């Protein structure tokens, strides 16, 4: 199967660069969507192709997913040197504890834990949900007045700690120590790796955030060399579109073949 000529040409230019990041969403891009998310598996040939790309010099491969890190690892079967970015960027397989947080953010998370425990003590019946980069205070089941008072206490923590990202919801307040999202994660990873360009493929709204962030990459040269692919239907800001997961594997194969051909000396 051959790619449409414009996509084939873009793959050729991308593959010729010294250092590249090849990243993809998992569900709906690499793995067909299924009724039970626990039954999700990569499409035939997908992981083999990504492993082959990851073995090439100057080439990093990453799976970027909204799933938590461990299920992503188990379902994909990914092993080193493939990188895993989970929970929309809050988790990263390169960190020993899986958390993609710097020291300041880790310290803030600890402080937040203490402050929230105090909120729960003052407002009996509230509960704390732990997320990789933050905490959520839940007030469901409380009478409305008690609930509102508890939520106000949690929101006030955002004033005490301005670095917290506060997201109020219905009977919840989420307090996060880091702005996460696939876009933020992709650009941060590209910076860290010092790559010349990023390939990213995905099928959903959160991936659109990735496509947009790569287009708005503060490194304007890198932005101009990006290669973004939407898998399946739906409005998109990606540069290219493929119909399904199998077609994405063809793109991976083309990247691998072009890179072997164009950068054989390394
Ligand atoms: Mg998806």
TrEMBL record:
Pfam families: Trehalose_PPase. Keywords: Hydrolase, Magnesium, Metal-binding. Its cofactor is Mg(2+). Pathway: Glycan biosynthesis; trehalose biosynthesis. It is an enzyme of class 3 (hydrolase). Signal peptide: none annotated. The keyword Cell membrane does not apply. It catalyses: alpha,alpha-trehalose 6-phosphate + H2O = alpha,alpha-trehalose + phosphate. GO terms for molecular function: trehalose-phosphatase activity. InterPro entries: HAD-like_sf (IPR036412), HAD_sf (IPR023214), OTSB-like (IPR044651), Trehalose_PPase (IPR003337). It comes from the Bacteria. The keyword Metal-binding applies. Belongs to the trehalose phosphatase family. Removes the phosphate from trehalose 6-phosphate to produce free trehalose. NCBIfam families: T6PP (TIGR00685). This is Trehalose 6-phosphate phosphatase. It comes from Ornithinimicrobium kibberense. The gene is otsB.
């Amino acid at each position: 199967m051959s790619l449409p000529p414009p996509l084939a040409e873009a793959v050729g230019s991308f593959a010729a660069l010294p250092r590249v990041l090849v990243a993809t969403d998992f569900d709906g891009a690499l793995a067909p969507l299924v009724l039970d998310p626990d039954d999700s598996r990569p499409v035939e040939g997908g992981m083999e192709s990504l492993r082959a790309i990851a073995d090439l010099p100057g080439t990093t491969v990453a799976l970027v997913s909204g799933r938590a890190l461990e299920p992503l690892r188990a379902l994909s079967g990914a092993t080193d040197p493939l990188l895993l970015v989970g929970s929309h960027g809050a988790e990263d397989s390169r960190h020993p504890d899986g958390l993609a947080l710097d020291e300041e953010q880790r310290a803030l998370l600890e402080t937040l834990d203490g402050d929230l425990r105090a909120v729960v003590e003052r407002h009996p019946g509230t509960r704390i949900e732990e997320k990789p980069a933050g905490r959520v205070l839940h007030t469901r089941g409380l009478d409305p007045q008690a609930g509102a008072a508890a939520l106000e206490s949690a929101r006030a923590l955002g004033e005490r700690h301005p670095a917290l990202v506060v997201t109020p919801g219905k009977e919840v307040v989420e307090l996060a120590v880091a702005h996460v999202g696939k876009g933020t994660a992709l650009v941060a990873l590209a910076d860290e790796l010092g790559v010349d360009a990023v390939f990213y493929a995905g099928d959903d709204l959160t991936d659109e955030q990735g496509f947009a962030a790569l287009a708005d990459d503060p490194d304007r040269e890198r932005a101009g060399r990006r290669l973004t692919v939407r898998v399946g239907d739906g409005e998109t800001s990606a540069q290219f579109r493929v119909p399904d997961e199998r077609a994405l594997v063809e793109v991976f194969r083309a990247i691998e073949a072009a890179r072997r051909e164009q950068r054989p000396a390394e």
